[in-house]
Amino acid sequence: MEIRFRPKEHLDALNSGEIDSIPQSYLNDLFSEICSSKETPKFKAVDYAAGADYIWIYAALAGIVHAIALGEQINNGFEGWAKLAKKIIKLIKKTDAIALDKDALSVLCINTILELQPEIHSIKKIIEYETEVPAAYGYGGECEYSKFLEKAQIYYIQGYEVNSKQLLLFGARENGDIEILKYIDIVKYR
């Protein structure tokens, strides 16, 4: 999982370019609930809008990669998905700005399904698409360690088949805003 963010508590340090003054322990604490006990996330300062110094902190979490692959089905462990989503939502609230990758947004979409549906037996990801929204800022050029960082604003479309009966189509922004674009009762069309 890849996340870039601007923590509310240390915006002054980011804005003045004093990244080293943000305690590593503070950053580790922010991510402690999301990361496994064995994982220590790597943090890197990233300057967006070169010349304007709009600095973000980038974190790559190796423990959460490909949360749910296209075509993969989940048949159990729904409580774990809900817990992880709550931790991501808690992190979002502690930031001034955040950009989440498709794995984090998959977790949030699955959580929305769990909140909407009283009885879940299976969730299968059947659609995954992303497009970059043109923006006036960006990392500028290619990044040797992450394609995620090259994108300023991203719009994701994800679709999930629920209980082999419904299709939920989501639109999601990199900042964690999610909306249900379409609900289809698949059984009606079979």
Structure, explained:
The chain has four helices and nine strands, in the order βααβββαβαββββ. The protein is an alpha+beta fold and 190 residues long. It has one domain (2-189). A five-stranded antiparallel β-sheet has the order 4-6-7-8-9, with helices on one face. It has a four-stranded antiparallel β-sheet with strand order 2-3-1-5. A hairpin with a 5-residue loop joins strand 2 and strand 3 (54-60). The longest helix is centred in the middle third of the chain and has 16 residues, at 78-93. It starts with a strand and ends in a 5-residue tail after the last strand.
Shape: elongated
The number of helical segments is 4
Portion in beta strands: 25-35%
| Mean pLDDT, all residues | 82
- Indicate the low-confidence ranges by residue numbers: none
Q: Got a strand count?
A: 9
The secondary-structure element order is EHHEEEHEHEEEE
> What level of helicity do the residues show?
10-25%
Instruction: Tally the structural domains.
Output: 1
- What would you call the structural class? alpha+beta
User: Can you summarize the main beta sheet?
Assistant: 5 strands, antiparallel
Radius of gyration: 18 Å
Strand order across the largest sheet: 4-6-7-8-9
Q: Separation of termini?
A: 36 Å
